[in-house]
Give the backbone structure.
Amino acid sequence: MKANSREEEVLELIARRVPPGDNWSGIWMDAPSYPIEGLVPTLSAYMRATEFKGAYRLEPLKGELYAIKTQTVSWTPPEPEVFDLYGEGL
């Protein structure tokens, strides 16, 4: 059987909002230890630190910011079942 693959989106949490206001705490590895003021400066800091050029997702009610990344998922379909009740498996 031939292996199949497809691209799958993965959301990576990169920042959380720190109330009050529009302050964000970075989650990435070398994020500043202090809150960053503003969403755009937070995105800029993340892009400079990681060189990620892709899509982002904001969950405003949760106060979370995600980077949308893709990964290739491969799988091998199962072998079809063969029944020999009617002589098919012979």
Q: What stands out?
A: The mean pLDDT is 87. The longest strand covers residues 4-18.
